From TrEMBL:
<dbReference type="Pfam" id="PF18481">
    <property type="entry name" value="DUF5616"/>
</dbReference>
<protein>
    <recommendedName>
        <fullName>DUF434 domain-containing protein</fullName>
    </recommendedName>
</protein>
<dbReference type="InterPro" id="IPR041652">
    <property type="entry name" value="DUF5616"/>
</dbReference>
<dbReference type="Pfam" id="PF04256">
    <property type="entry name" value="DUF434"/>
</dbReference>
<feature type="domain" description="DUF434">
    <location>
        <begin position="25"/>
        <end position="79"/>
    </location>
</feature>
<dbReference type="InterPro" id="IPR007368">
    <property type="entry name" value="DUF434"/>
</dbReference>
<feature type="domain" description="DUF5616">
    <location>
        <begin position="84"/>
        <end position="221"/>
    </location>
</feature>
Length: 241
């Protein structure tokens, strides 16, 4: 096993580690929420809020991930399921979205809770997925959820064009066979569209998918509570302490 992880970037403590920085971010999220709710485009809204609070690039990335309009928040809330709704159901899982978020969380990277109650990180695939120290533990956490929710089947969807997607598919399939889990792994060229249009119930924190899906489950929120995970968490609502 390699010694890679998805922990903090150099400089993240300076961007997110002080109450002053977090306070500015929360104010920017409140401003962006106001603008999005009045149908400002996301790019323009994030630039206005970012400029006002002199945010750096990674802070603006966190701002965009955490923000949503009032309509988006209400729409997502209406489609969110509870753990008891999942028994004997088939659930589709946004593979890289969930896996990388869990790897980041377990690595001690900053995790941001958005206005919609979803958790997001600042990592990305950038064309290549690389397994890290926390990969297996992340898959084990998904397996724990699968068993406790008593799912009928779990279908992982990964981006086919991403380098090493075939390798992570093999890792997950081998894990599921060894642990007698009814899992499928599918590689797709347009996974977002597949998830939004074909999945009855899905797991993702991708904003576009959540806006366009039928039903979704907040897996990360569930795992943090159920597995008592230690999280380097920043709540982005001004109303959270």
């Amino acid at each position: 096993m390699n010694n890679r992880n998805r922990g903090k970037n150099t400089g993240d403590d300076n961007l997110f580690g002080s109450e002053k920085q977090v306070s500015a971010l929360r104010s920017a999220v409140e401003d962006m929420h106001y603008l999005l709710s009045r149908e400002y485009p996301e790019k323009a809204a994030s630039e206005l809020a970012g400029n006002r609070y002199k945010l750096k690039t990674r802070q603006i990335q966190a701002l965009r991930g955490a923000s949503a309009s009032e309509t988006q928040i209400r729409n997502r809330e209406e489609k969110q399921l509870k753990i008891t709704d999942l028994k004997e159901k088939t659930v589709h899982l946004d593979g890289f979205n969930v896996l990388i978020l869990l790897e980041s969380l377990l690595s001690g990277a900053y995790i941001f809770e958005g206005l919609d109650g979803c958790y997001r990180d600042l990592s990305g695939v950038h064309g290549t997925y690389k397994r890290v120290n926390q990969t297996l533990r992340s898959v084990e956490l998904v397996a724990s959820f699968f068993r406790k929710a008593q799912l009928k089947k779990l279908i992982w969807i990964f981006d086919r064009p991403v380098s090493n997607s075939g390798r992570i598919k093999q890792i997950i399939l081998e894990f599921s066979q060894e642990n007698h889990l009814d899992w499928e792994v599918d590689l797709q060229y347009n996974p977002d569209k597949i998830l939004a249009e074909n999945a009855e119930i899905l797991v993702s924190s991708d904003a576009w998918i959540l806006d366009n899906c039928k039903y979704w489950f907040n897996l990360i929120n569930y795992l943090i509570g159920e597995e008592n995970l230690s999280v380097n968490l920043i709540k982005m609502s001004c109303h959270d302490s």
